[in-house]
Structures are given as C-alpha cells and as structure tokens.
Amino acid sequence: MKYIVFSPGMNNITIADTSKLHDYKFENNMDYGFRLENKLYDMEYRIKLDEKGRLLGLLEYKNINSPIYKIIKKFPMNYETIAEETFIRFSPSRENVIDGLDTMTIEKVFPKQKLVRVGTDKNIRNYFYHYK
User: Are 118 and 110 in contact (CB under 8 A)?
Assistant: First the structure.
C-alpha cells in the first residue's frame, strides 16, 4: 500500500476535525488520515498494490472545498498511464524505494507500523509505503 499524504504543516488547511485521526494502524480500507510520532497526516491518495508492487487501485481523498485543492489541482495525475508508471520495489541495497521511474531515499522506517517514509516535497506531501 502506498499513501500520499499532506505534510503536517498543511493540516490546518486540510483537516476539519483532528479528533477523527488515530495512531496509524494498517487497514486495507483505511479512508482517513492518521497520527504518527505525534504528527498528523491527512490522506490525499491511497494506492493499493498487488504482491509484486503493481497498481490495483487508486483512491483520492481531496476536499474540493479546501483552498489547498486549488493548488493540487494544477498537478493532475495521468490516470490512463498510472498503472504502467507504478511498479514499486526496494532497491537491492534496501536503502531506496523504486517507484516507477523514481528512486527515492528511505528517510525513516517505522517497524512497529511496517511503514517506510521516503524523501518527498516536505512542504506539501509525504509518501509512505506499507510493507509486509
């Protein structure tokens, strides 16, 4: 599972009710943001992958009434080719996540939650990968 979430600094814009966010716990149908290390992450996309790291489905969680949506809207995803572009795996050294054609350095591993956070645009988004 891959999560694209808004960075904690964006939460005052994207999250209406922070009391609904709980500590991260993997769920196949998770449809809300989460807390991790006392930081709040609001869900933007949840990308479901098969056992080999290929795209099975994409769910989008944007509040179109939020001011941030107008910013994000300028960067549309190409839904026709995303399945071809999305193949996720670890590098042989296990220091990077290879996501399609992008190689991203692993910043932190959360063993208890089975999450990996990779280098991202910290001002707007964070990328997390759930592993088994």
Answer: no
CA distance linking residue 110 with residue 116, whole number of Å? 6
Rounded to whole angstroms, the Cα distance separating 40 from 126 reads: 11
How is residue 75 written in tokens?
A: 């960067």
Q: Please, which residues bridge with residue 46 across strands? A: 3, 59
Inter-residue contact 35 to 23 (CB < 8 Å): yes
pLDDT tens string 41-70 = 888 888 888 777 777 777 777 655 555 554
Q: What is the pTM of this model?
A: 0.75
Residue 63 identity: N
Handedness of CA 38, 39, 41, 46 (dihedral sign): negative
